[in-house]
Design a protein that fits this description.
The protein is α+β, with helices and mostly antiparallel strands and 173 residues long. The chain is built from four helices and seven strands. 22% of the residues lie in helices and 36% in strands. The mean pLDDT is 83.
């Protein structure tokens, strides 16, 4: 995946004092255009984070809310989804990389001067999407539903004369 080039999602931590700090971000379509094969085609999101810095770590808590545009899994038309999720990340300052990063812990060299939150935000937003993304019943594109119904009827009627598996069935004989 590409790195987002917008500096808005990079927090300068070298001069940050110990204690709590608050940051707000707006995330729109441009953010997701930087990622290849993103399922999110549009967005209007608000990110509110609280960074609690100590000498050895930064604890990040907050929430992401707003709406995203995705394709409907049923009719492939664009649809808007409301999104609301809580985020949590622990950033540890370590001299060696013995401890690997995981979903909730990121490690940084103590000499690092910036914390790039773009990948962290992208991952949390994608994980907040529902597995099944479809319009409510009756709101899908009627033409596509008609085509799907016709194909489903063919399959139920046993019209598999053009099935790619016919050749394999001949091998059984």
């Amino acid at each position: 995946m590409n790195k987002v080039s917008n500096r808005e999602y990079i927090i300068p931590i070298s001069g940050m004092s110990v204690g709590k700090h608050f940051v707000d971000f707006s995330i729109d379509n441009e953010f997701f255009e930087e990622y290849d094969n993103s399922q999110i085609l549009g967005a209007l999101l608000r990110v509110k984070l609280e960074l609690d810095k100590s000498s050895t770590l930064i604890e990040i808590k907050g929430d992401i809310g707003g709406s995203v545009t995705v394709e409907c899994d049923r009719c492939l038309e664009l649809m808007e989804l409301k999104l609301q999720t809580e985020v949590k990340l622990l950033v540890k300052f370590v001299k060696t990389q013995d401890e690997e990063d995981n979903d909730e812990v990121m490690t940084l060299e103590p000499s690092e001067s910036e914390l790039d939150l773009s990948q962290f935000l992208y991952d949390y937003i994608c994980l907040a999407l529902p597995i099944q993304r479809a319009h409510p019943q009756g709101e899908c594109d009627p033409e596509m539903i008609k085509k799907l119904s016709a194909l489903n009827k063919k399959a139920l009627d046993g019209d598999d004369s053009k099935s790619p598996f016919d050749k394999l069935k001949d091998l059984m004989n």
